[in-house]
Amino acid sequence: MRIDVVTIFPEFFSVLDVSLLGRARTQGVLDVRVHDLRDFTHDRHRTVDDTPAGGGAGMVMKPEPWGEALDAVLTPSSTVVFPSPAGALFTQGRARELSSREHLVFCCGRYEGIDQRVVEWAGSVAAEVLELSLGDYVLNGGEVAAMAMIEATARLVPGVVGNPESLVEESHEDGMLEYPSYTKPATWRGLETPAVLLGGNHAEIAAWRREQQRERTRRIRPDLLAAGAPEEDRKDQP
Length: 238
Ligand code: 6GU
What we know:
- By secondary structure, the chain is α/β, with parallel strands linked by helices.
- The protein has helices spanning about 20-25, 65-75, 90-100, 115-125, 140-155, 200-220, 220-230, 230-235; strands at about 1-5, 30-35, 50, 60, 80-90, 105, 130-135, 185-190, 190.
- Strands 2-1-6-5-7 form a 5-stranded parallel β-sheet. Strands 3-4 form a two-stranded antiparallel ribbon. The chain has a two-stranded antiparallel ribbon with strand order 8-9.
- Helix 2 (about 65-75) runs parallel beside helix 4 (about 115-125), helix 3 crosses helix 5 and helix 6 (about 200-220) packs across helix 7.
- Bound molecules: 6-chloroguanine.
- The site of 6-chloroguanine (6GU) has 13 residues, from strand 5 and helix 5.
């Protein structure tokens, strides 16, 4: 998978050099390229923002540098993501979809956002354009959000996570939260590992984990059950 990122803070993305994604890049599974938006300006101050049309507080990112940056990276098969608190919710399902794309382009806005015509224009060139939000809160810019989306997406690309089985029983993969995990020792500071996990009965363990998922999801995220967990898990929600 090829990923291009356009940002005025390329140094934010140095974390992509480490851990699983760093290894995937070294091994050639992921090709990530980070571009400095200011390299696509032509004035002495390398200006990327201007005052909002119609007035109001803050600054808006000018379309021209974005146009030139995207001219350099977009192809007709690209999927373009504009991280934005005004976007649709980025979910595990969305990460799964994006993980099958051959080319992702993340456009990180700052200030009050990017001139909307950039989004519109990108739609006339790329295969798909998405405005996506991490959740209902506001970050200072798209960088941290893009990083979260890149990590959630790239770890689903075959070969990035060493053991693909570890991707199956995770929170949100089946519309529910994950069950709690324990390791040795069986007793720690007076607290016991649940006996069922030490008994070796795999059917009992599976049933216990399923029940833990249901209990946790009902208690912490009842909205997920309402949104479409399997029928059998929805009957007794509050
Ligand atoms: Cl994608 N961007 C910004 N700036 N803030 C956010 C967000 C994105 N998602 C949640 N808050």
